[in-house]
Predict the 3D structure of the following.
Amino acid sequence: MGSQDNTAASNSFLAYKSAKVFVAGHRGLVGSAIVRKLTQLGFTNLVLRTHAELDLTRQSDVEAFFASEKPEFVIVAAAKVGGIHANNTYPADFISINLQIQTNVIDSAYCHGSKKLLFLGSSCIYPKFAPQPIPEDALLTGPLEPTNEWYAIAKIAGIKMCQAYRIQHKWDAISGMHTNLYGPHDNFHPENSHVLPALMRRFHEAKVNNAKEVVVWGTGSPLREFLHVDDLADAVVFMMEKYSGLEHLNVGSGKEVTIKELAELMKEVVGFEGDLVWDATKPDGTPRKLMDSSKLASLGWTPKVSLKDGLVDTYKWYLENVNL
């Protein structure tokens, strides 16, 4: 039943490149980066299923998959995600689908003997008015941001589920919570993408259309933290190899940039020659949102991709893959 004593030493991840590794959600922004990283490292036995091949919300299907495949390592990058509009419009989907996916995968992985599982989530698990930078122990210390509480509650339940299985079953289930991500396979949809891909698309379209200016909401003063998804994939491998603790770990770049600095850098990377205009009548949003990733840093992990290099890389992917 997977109740064996799982010490970090017996669970070396990088020592077993032929071990079966199930990456749930391998087609998304996060999952695709993890697959790229594992492939680069020489892992030869990745177990991947599309949504059409395996619906993770169906308990019996997930049970059958784990009984048949018995992956030794599991990385849970599958989730229903979206921006403020989507969260406000489909709250039932965000809480029920995410709870179903993670409950089915975590329980089946344990029951069918997986050695180690990593559950991923994001900084929206923290209270709306958490201290800055946000430490791990800010979890459950105050009310959540109302626009994404359905998603956040599901992710908090996932963290607690991993902790509960570790406490009761001595099973090596860990959690990592990342900051704002960007990179190849991001969502560049004009209405429901996040700030960085949305800016990239707008500057690109303005450039193509020879527009005179790009208008950006707010004053440009809010501070944001961004992490290239390849850095997250690197951190995932690091945690699978080095971390076996009860507490979830923050995964961030540790670097803040104002929205104004981001927009100016984006303008340069895209090569837009027109003016950048700020509409200060529009809301700025949260003034600052930075994660405290010092615990992960103290274990020896640091991000490697600079924001400039990351934007260049992402724009290259955008030009090659996004149909306008």
